[in-house]
Amino acid sequence: MDHMLRLLLALSMLVLTWVAVGMVLPAAAAAKSPSGDQKRWQNEEGEVLSNDRLTQVLGTDSLALQFVGFANRHGKVYRSEKEVQHRFLTFKDNWEYIRESNTKNLSYTLGVNKFADLSWEEFKQEYLMKSTESSCVDNKGTNPIRKVEYLPKQQDWRKYGVVSPVKNQKQCGSCWAFSTTGALESAHALATGQLVLLSEQQLVDCGGSFDKRNLQGCNGGWPSSALEYVKYNDGLDTESSYPYEAKDGFCNYNVEANGAKVYNVINITQGAEEELQQVVGLLQPVSVCFEVTKPFRFYNGGVFSSSDCQVAPQDLNHAVLAVGYNQDENVTPYWIVKNSWGPSWGVNGYFNAELGKNMCGIASCATYPTSTETTGAASF
């Protein structure tokens, strides 16, 4: 009986160890894995690193095991033991940063996500727009806003089926293209009743020929200029006909695959958050830009707020889509914002940002399209 208990205990410990390391498979078993695990831990010769070798490289403490599980969950590919060590040390630094932030009782929480093996400098280089001296919108704006008698306390355009699913820009500073398509997809859906997914890749490939200064592919751009391009081009292809590749390419616009058009481009007055709220509350989702600061990449929930970010257009480095807000008296007022870092980031790909302070410049570069002559700002 004692022998049987010892055997069961030994088997249990083996299973727990296997689960704790994220089920990193040895080379022979990994070859059968349909999820591609066999590609995640390779040396420079393409050979899969065994569990024993990973243990020798990283050690067996709890954080090392967490890192292995993290790499498996997010399909990370490390080409050498040196890279494994480097990414683990970066992961460790970020883990400590997240843990310390969450002890401060802030209005938001951070969490380990797919960016946890990147340094802040690497993240900025791969996912954010580069700085630019050009202006995103006119200071005075073009929105024919006037005082409205009623503004709902809450709005969420997702409830009406006019917001497209969260997409993933990957390692390309093309957030501006996703913000643009998101705004136009919603405007088109509100005008026609049809939610059509539109091509970010066309904007990346073709926009530069229209406005080289403000539309620079994976290096960044402004949604206001992108919408002007679509208006000038008389349309934007569907996503299925011109799929996203996360890299700069040659323009392959096909007029026969046109999915939506822009009748007019309307800019919110720079910094006028009340004006932005009126449009989001009464008309449609709006493309907005803001400055991403160090903690934001690990946003995990709550209402994001920061005293470190800037609001001037030249400081903005990311473009997203404001799809609603909540100004109920029982909560801190916040914007509901759709990001383009995939549905696993944040809260199903979305985040909430404090409303009322032009947080990180969210109202400094806001713009939206109309799809027909009778939609959009004409409703005011």
Automatic annotation (TrEMBL):
This is Uncharacterized protein. It comes from Diphasiastrum complanatum.
